[in-house]
Protein 1
Amino acid sequence: MAQKQHIPQLQRSVEYRSRFRQLLRSAHKGPRGLRGASWTGMIDVVFNLLIFFVVITTASQREGFLPGDLPAQAWNQTSTDVPALPIRVSIYAGNSFDDCQLELVGSERSPDTFRQLYEILSDMHVSGSGLYEADNPVVLSLGAGVSVDQMVNTYNAVVLAGFTNIQFVRSR
Amino acid sequence: MRGHFRRGPPRSLLINLTPMIDVVFLLLIFFVLIAQFSSRQRAQVQLPRPQPSAAKYLYSSDVLTITVICDQQGTLSAYQIEGREIGPEQIDVLAHALAVRYKANPQVEVNLRADRRADGKVIEALMAACARTGIRHVNLVAAMPQE
């Protein structure tokens, strides 16, 4: 009788053991959806992305170009005539490096900053209800001691306003 | 013996994209690094930073970059051309280099990378040197605004 009682208990324990093994196996493999995913490959891609963004963010300052065309044959001449109706912008160096004075010859408005210069020139351009065409000459007259920064900022304002024919003159 | 040549179960025909993505990213990083190293050869200067800026990217097959290096006070200390530094008094060496490049390709473009503290007359002198040689396309280099 005692042996007969033990048999179902034994069967149950065998059943439990096989279920436990199945559970272990399924835990090892992960859920059904992730069974095919390769963790190694994913880690590779994640690291590559990480390196990519590190390289991109440590990139040096980006540089852009303000295009310009020099007049042909003009430098062989002793002097060049200033065009008949140019827009003339004069830049004078101030007391400090950042300080400079801008003057727009022939205009009622006088710019204090490079942004104001750009706004005034934009209004003078045909696209801004002005009278000046894009190829109308703009003469930049540089005073003594004007820095590259001031020169490039002025040039930038003129280009931004839409003018393409820009010339430099050094005031004497 | 016959058992050794028995065919196994048919292999999956799915393409594993992971190594391809890896390789693409590695190539991308490689080229970004190469581009950075080539720009590192140029002297580091404080470029003008106009805002708003009209500066844009320009592509040209033949470009000669002249870098104007100056000290803290804005005094010109050297020019750098094709990775070679030359003194401020050696403008004839610079003119010779310009002439050689112009002879090789009359459509050559010159990029002027000048320190923002330098005197503007340096740029004028360089433009005059370019014009005397016959070079017509001269670009001023400015820092692009950070996005």
Protein 2
Amino acid sequence: MTAENALEALKARLGGKVVETSSFRGDDTAVVTPEAWLEAASALKNGLGFDFLMDLCGADYLPREPRFEVVCHFYSSKTGARLRLKTRLPGGKPAVDSLAGLWLSADWFEREAWDMYGIDFKGHPDLRRLLMYDSFEGHPLRKDYPLKGRQPRIDHAD
Amino acid sequence: MGLETLFGNSFLTTRLDEAINWGRKYSFFQYPFVTACCGMEFMSAWASTYDIARFGAEYPRFSPRQADVLFVVGTVNEKLAPVLRRVYDQMCDPKWVVSFGVCATSGGFYDNYATVQGIDKIIPVDIYIPGCPPRPEAVLDALVKLQKKVSKESVLDREHDR
């Protein structure tokens, strides 16, 4: 199954929950509603042959609303097809279902997205910071995090 | 060391400085605190082509308690800063610190929320090596400069300038 077919198949399965799709020079993207996030990922894995979650990350589009995006890249080791799945989340309390139950690799990706953007993944087994230290306040890759905002753990000279 | 009470600030103490410094500068035990890509260049300076052993500094000690020189090689971030301070605190006097590469020296181009803008904000530094990464020749040059610095020190004043 090629990725174009996968986009069509995904639309056929989810109907109106697929907000938009696009294909540009082999980049095939589907945007789904946050409520359909887990359903879409599950369909890609179990029905459409995408057996590898390559990446999951957050993105901040301040001042757009909905402000945040969660982006997944899937790969099929059988056909070589790739597909990007996105969902858009509001700026207030961004939250979406965790994919860690489907893919073990989503575990740390989601912890990183929580650490950097403060996106809550509902149902994640252990949603702690991955890169920053526990005493760090805020989420450093948010566009409204201060450019020079530093939070040293020990006193600095100067 | 209590030498001033033994000998006073006399001719004998001065000569003792030279003897002790001669021993110190040709027998650095280094602690390589390697965090990033500079480590590859550090290994190159260490290995047979450039052979840091010619200067008596080939012996790495991976326990800070047995080391004389702390080589901070690579980027140090805020998460790691307490670890570096602790390693430094565990080293016995006399001790020296070499900041290896531009990241350890000033944070380099990592001017962001995560990176310490130079390890001299955390611990005192004796020699800075510029470069991204530094050439092995620069590392050897720094080592020779450190030897010169050590040879001018006195066993009496070491613990007071910290």
Protein 3
Amino acid sequence: MTRKATGVFGLVALLLLMGVSLFVGVMNVSPKDLWHDPEAMRLMGISRLPRTLAAVIAGASLAVTGTIMQMLVRNRFVEPSTAGTGQGAAAGILIATLFFPAVPLFAKMSLAAICALISSFGFLAIVRRLPPTQPLLVPLVGMIYGGILGAGVVFVAYQADLLQYIDIWMNGEFSGVLKGRYELIWVAAAVAALSYLVADQFAIVGMGRVASISLGLNYRQVITIGLVAISIVTALTVVTVGMIPFVGLVVPNITSRLLGDNLRRTLPITALLGAVLVLASDILGRVLRYPFEIPVGTVFGVIGAVVFLWLLYARPGHAR
Amino acid sequence: MIRISDLSYHHGRTQVLDQVSLTIPKGGITALVGANGAGKSTLLSLIARLTPLQTGSIHVGDLDVSRCPSDMLARNLSILPQNTEVAPRLTVRELVSFGRYPYHKGQPTSEDHTKIDAALQDFDLTPLADRVLDTLSGGQKQRAYVAMTYAQDTDYILLDEPLNNLDIAASRSLMQTLRHLSQEKGRTIVVVMHDLNYACAYADHLVALSNGKIRAEGHPSQVVTNGFLSSVFSTDAHVHHVDQVPVILV
């Protein structure tokens, strides 16, 4: 499929899903209710529309930051939520909740972003010391690193009797998304959109340090910009909807397989695909056990695992 | 020309380069040769500022390598990355386009596209332009990387062991292309190479390093002798001559 065809197909799918998402949920609302039932309109404004937008934004920006991280680390099998960034963000909110419970949400979010940034730099420092001939070590080390950080967070939370919060941060779901309580995620959308401006630089960094410097790039600066973008988006997602694993891993791999790594051309498609898959997972989570809900992280985890296995085992077309 | 003076470089306690002073002439192909660990690659990466300078100075044309802004250096000097084991999934055209990055910074102009097309043309890559790098042979891939470096349109081009993993046909074709670049386009090309026979056949100037010092310098036909082989490479191989070009039978 060409890039244009994928784009058009994705956009149509996204619009359809957004339409479906507005009318699927515990409360039954049909499009024609909107005309005469003010209650239905209120439900749309307070819950359904914010929820739909949050899923679209989270999916798109997580997919974009997953791509950026894979370029910075030069490995296709990493993503922020398994390599310590997400756990760092959770640690940040935990610290804020324990020591500064009265500060506003924005301050907690900032601390989460800072902790996410520190743990991302930590991951990068470890990756640099791994032998380049063993690319599979990178995701393994990432998972161990993220696992250790996550275990630390859970332990402290357990001691402080804050386990139920951890659950909210670590397992993403959109049922709690309400007007007035999710708007921070728009900042994530802005950060992901801004990173498109330097898409070429991320693509060049993906070719390695030597190529980057030879092309006159400030290598360290690009790495830092990338990690900051990843950390802000991850922290905002953790704070507003919780961690959604696999999005940043699977979606960039699908795009790369279909359309390659020229990010200036592919990053919008990656964002679109992330939005479509996350929104579809959320809708599925709403209808599978109606009227109960399955968290989007769980649904995407299953879908993501299947897709990822397919990516690993399918005969690569022009993959390496 | 490239002027190097009093260049020393330590890696931990190891002295990699020891008070190297060297002038690489403008134009032509200069081959950097020497035994493994002689400091050739370090010298090349210091010239391209991939490694920060410790002591000494390097001037590329009028540019002081330690001071000039990185995008200005990138418009005057390019270095071909050694074949990487993890290549990004790019088409040949996309790869070559990245060579124009120091000029367009993400927004290619029509001039950039003209240069990209010209680079594809000059390296016989036009039929392969939309192929993904991974689907190419080693020689084709190397040619695509050289085309990217060429599209960077710099007066100075450095290559670190470009003949690695290339068969004889691909090696000859690459060296002929480099000769064409130096003779027809006036580029200054510096190549780290292992195969002395290729160096003798194609280089206009040869610089031999061992243990971090320059041991010999000049035209290959004057430099490469039996004594040179034993002092620089500690081997007793014999030098023969074919059409006045030194040839080493292995």
Protein 4
Amino acid sequence: MSLIELKNVSKSYLTEAGEVRALQGIDLSIDSGDMIILSGKSGCGKTTLLNLIGGLDQPSSGEIRIGDKNLCTLSEKERTLFRRREVGTIFQSFNLIPMLTVEENIALPRWLDGFSQEEARPKVESLLQQVELTHRRNHRAHELSGGEQQRVAIARALINSPKVILADEPTGNLDSQTGLQVLSVMTDLNRKQGQTIIIATHSREADALANRIIKLKDGKILR
Amino acid sequence: MITKVYSLFILRHYLQSWRQSLLTVLGLALGISVFVSIHLTVGASLRSFKNTVQAVSGKAEWQLVQNGREIDEKLFPVIKTHPVVQAAAPVVEFQASLYRWPGQMIWIMGVDFFSEAGIRRYSDSLSSLKGEEFLPLLTTPRSIALTRIFAARYGIKEGDVLTILVNGRPKKLTVVSLMEAEGPAQALEGHFGLMDIAQAQDVFGKVGVLDRIDLLLREEGVEKNQIQELKKIIPQGVRLLQPADREKGTERMIRSYQLNLTALSFIAVLVSMYLIYNTASLSVVRRRKELGILRSLGMLPWQVLLLVLFEAAGYGLIGGLIGISGGTLLAGFLLDTVSRTITNLYVLVGVRELPFSFFEAGVMIFLSIIISMVSAYFPARQAARLEPREVIYQRPGWIGPGRIKNRKNLYRGLGLLGLAGLLTGLPAWNNWPVGGFSATLALTLGFSFLLPDFVRGGINRILSLGFQGKKDLLSAWLGVNYVNRYLSRMAVAMAALMIAIAMLISVSLMIRSFRQAVDTWISQSVSGDLFVGPVFPSNQVFSQFLDPQVIGEIEKVKGISDIYYYRGVITELKGFPVRLWSGDLAVIQRHGGLAFTRGKSEEIFQKTLTGEEILVSEVLANQLGLKPGARLSLMTAQGSHSFSVAGVFYDYRTEGGAVWMDRHLFLKYWKDPRINGVRVYLKDPARIHQVREAIYKKMAGRVSLVIISNKELRDQILNIFDQTFQITYVLEAIAILVAFLGILHSSSISVLFREKELGILKALGALPGQIRRMILMETALMGLFSFLWGGIAGTLLSLILIFVINKQSFGWTIPFHWSWLIYLQTLGIIVLGSILSGWIPAGMAVRKSTQEMIREE
């Protein structure tokens, strides 16, 4: 059985200009351990699709299943807990909390889940090593380079051992060299740990790393 | 581990925005300190009053008193030997002025030490009847025991002579003993003296009479309802009361005074609540993205709610701690004013120290935390409802479309104004103007909701003046535009300032109208060229009498056309103390009469001069629903008697109401010819100084009299009036200060929010002076619009204060008195304060480097 199943998912937004159909009739299944690239031009619906899978938004119609959970039937609280425990999200603009240190930013979802500082520490240590930021642990976000900030965001996404990592243009704010480094971290995660990863990007360099590329245009999957 | 998240976010946010945090804490601390200071000062006076009552009553459960006069001492042995009586102690008391320290009082109690055991306990040296130090009070002629506190305060030692004034005559007392502050010696913070009863009767001119008899009844007697048996032997007019009941009315009036001041002090708290609301909502707007990230990482909505509430609770905790310290300090300054006002209005209180209790401090801190959390609730709820997806993808500082909400605010505002109108029609509940206070709150909130629309309308009008593009006015034009654009962020701070202004204007208008009413009333109703008596006409007047020999000598002074002899007693009516004045009303009628609410003055006076009819003050008439022709039962020295009300007159002197009757009625029912003082009418008012000198000369060296002219009396009354309201200005000033902190806070935040825009302006060549002028223009506009809206709100509020709250609380009719000066003064303060509040944010914007301001994230 697939890890992620989307059946006839559509999403529309009401704006002052009228209704905008961001996604239309999306059918998609993603297996555990997949590394998926969502590609397409700006405004094609990549971010909307990621938001739906990540429980940040709800579809106008259709059904989304992740594991044994139907996201469409989850309450607000259950969706929040789903985001906390079962997905890890990486944003283009990193979205780190500026006033927290690297270590604290990574530990944050763990603390939210009720773990004490001591209980969270081994996992934080291991992730700091994995993203090679042990020496920066006490630095704040603005003291880091873009690549470093994105590696912190990756570590934060992994802290609660999620079923799936969702990355929305993770290299969009980085130079190409740093972007490649970030993608390499994610490839390693997928290959060595079998982590399911979905990356929304229009960077062509990422295509080679994926085992599946899904192209979107005007809210639909191109077959 | 959510606590870790909370502590990290809250503490770091405090540190990161320390300026804003400091302003918020300071604002709240000021609000709390005002509240605390009123609680402490009035509370201390109330406690002093209750302690005094309790201390001098001792264990006595009952007291025998006669309304408005003393009891014949022959009653004492009859009472003492009654089977139901376990212990009885006769008391003579006197409130005397200190000869060497004008204006200072001592309360002296004369007791029979052989009857005291079982009723009162004195310090160890006086507790035993066989004690050596006790005997001198009996054996030394005209001797007194003072408290150690009193003696230390005035540098008096054992063996010294203390001179007091009794009915204007100096009396010398030898200090034979000093008491510790125990038992009755705790009364009036030590301004207490103890004498042997026989000596006291002699010194105070009360030979053969007692002021009261304190009683302790046998338990079985009370159970078997033998009180009725006791009542049978009590002469007509003498009443058996419980001490606490006697003072309930006074206590109620002090509590009412406390309530009004507390309501006024709550304005500063209300303004600081707006400040916290402002801080919390701006903090939520500013940290939308951060909160969105937390939500996207799995923080639950209620956890976000708590995060914002806990942050506010932190302000409450620190603000409360500082507020308590500040309040105690402020209370130290206000204590004298408050206790003097209570003494002037109700009863003598002597407060020197503020009671501090850790429990009360804890309650205040708890209140401060609750106030902060309540203020932050709506922003917290807004934060909890943030949709993480929306927030994450929005630019920082984004605020949602407000048009629909504004319309909602318009409806809410209009609805609240309508509600305020309805609430003013509610009758008082237990003399408590619930409707009036609620209407004040509804009106204030209503005006707050309507403020943004008012400001928007005003700004559009300013913009339509067409100064766009005029280079000299560029800064002003930008400033006006910014206020328009960032109105939603500035509106709360403006509303806070608007409330403070509205309250300042309304209270000032009310005080001015009241003062005018008092002034007019003095001219109309207080006739007489000279007022002569042993003390200044005040609460003390009732216990001091003019010697008949002195009166005879005054009558012989040349140049006098008429003399009005007056006598006042305090009686009780439905649990409230009522001042009863008697005198030859024909004299009053001849010299201007009184201002009556209705009816012909001549007819009213005629009824009082011939029949058993009395006059009641407007306050009393309102309290009891009395109209001319109604009947009123008064407790006379002969027992309860019903009188007919001939007329209702305006009177602004006494809060509890007053009854006037002609001297013939007083003599009939009190059988007491003594008088407290006289009003002297001159043949030629221009000879006032000569007549006064003539009286002084006659009395020189024998009697110390207070002789004041009508003008001096008017000045004194208005002086006491001004003193009474002095405290309100202090409270108002603090509320305004808190509101300015709000403006400073909002303006600073607004500079931070649009740092990039300001940076771009600087990059485009805007000079520091232009940036500074622009921000000062913004704060000046905030002040100006708050003033305009607050002025309208304040005028309406003053009508509620005068015609609803005052009428229901006190029952006075106060004609509304308009004054432009109040508005002009307030405008000056507000515009100046607003510009000063803009100085710091303007400096922040000017000092920061342009490069840093326009740096991309």
